[in-house]
Amino acid sequence: MSPPSxxxxxxxxxxxxxxxxxxxHESERGAYFAFQLNRPASVRIYNxxxxxxDIECTCEDFQTTRAICVHIYWLIDGLNALLDTSTAxxxxxxxxxxxxxxxxxxxxxxxxxxxxxxxxxxxxxDELASDSDDAVEATRSPTxxxxxxxxxxxxxxVFDTGRLPDEFGQDFAPVPSDDxxxxxxxxxxxxATIYRLAIRDESVFRRLRRVITHDVxxxxxxxxxxxxARDAFAKLDSYIEDGPTVNNNQDIPRCAxxxxxxxxxxxxxxxxxxxxxxxxTTVVMRVPEILVEILQEVCNRNEDVYYRIGWERETxxxxxxxxxxxxxxxxxxxxxxxVSAPSWMQETFIIDRLGQMPAHxxxxxxxxxxxxxxxxxxxxxxxxxxxxAYRKLDGMIQDYTTEAxxxxxxxxxxxxxxxxxxxxQRRRLE
Length: 430
Hints:
The protein has helices spanning 3-13, 60-65, 70-83, 96-105, 107-112, 117-130, 144-156, 165-168, 181-184, 190-200, 202-211, 214-242, 252-276, 281-299, 326-332, 343-346, 351-356, 359-362, 366-379, 388-405, 409-418, 421-429; strands at residues 19-27, 30-37, 42-46, 55-57. By secondary structure, the chain is mainly alpha-helical. It has a four-stranded antiparallel β-sheet. Helix 12 (214-242) packs parallel to helix 14 (281-299).
């Protein structure tokens, strides 16, 4: 390791950074996890399957030199301690190749621990710092950054008509560490001012949370995703009616990808929110309700949408039939994606996600699901095998019906006992 790299490693490992939030993003280069620190720096670890092994930071030092910076050393040191302490060498002795290889190997582990990762990672660094003789005593709560910043964005985004919490939070600059009144005030932005106050002032945060509860935030988040799904259908209808325009080029493949992404976001929202705190039954049951609503709308669109259009459409000779039929694209004959595609692109649309949920969350929708099952069967040619979606949904309904209406072992035993002549004779003697 060169002297400049050694200096960066030493400075990074002993730095007093913390992770403000972790998000998974999609880009032209592929998927990556972005670790936003309490500095104008975001460390990105790319999916090694899509992009190849790579890690980068948005700080000026890395962008200028492309050398592993203090932020990357700090993050890898914490991830080593948190995710794989048994095999990880000290981060201060890793060169660039080792760092990139190590980060790529941890990509899957990061995804598995994503909801709680910032809090646990910050706590891990606090423990590492307290064990060091020259560590500076931490003045912040280990759970402060993630629990506070994300929750404040979540609460304030309720009042925004369209943006989701992570989109809403992009407007806010990092909160200054100096708690002077001048740093709390943000000119021309009440939301940004409240954001800073709520992060630094415990009483402000608690009063906001008392009014804007977890249920309120989850409900608003789900409503926005539902609205985006409806907008995707509306844009497809507009495209079919008027043809491509500057503001709308959403054909069937694009609409299908958008709907798949929205379904993934809905389910991620459910998983993350239920893992970090309790939600009311009403809110939890909204998730399958929205999913079934989207599935029903797709099943209602089994038609060649370009059959009677009034505009000239350019197509290739080998255009698949599914590209003209949204139902076929998502349910009957979905395209086969490469293994490097995101998992939400490869799964059976919506039905796989419903099957992963406890049955009590969607059992109130059993009649609607049965109607959809009948609809898929009617769409299938008598000589063709039913699509995978039909078989999975049929199995899911059958499993639920069997479990719901099959008598328990204790009740069966009780009936067998009552029907036993020897038991009847014993009762008469008594």
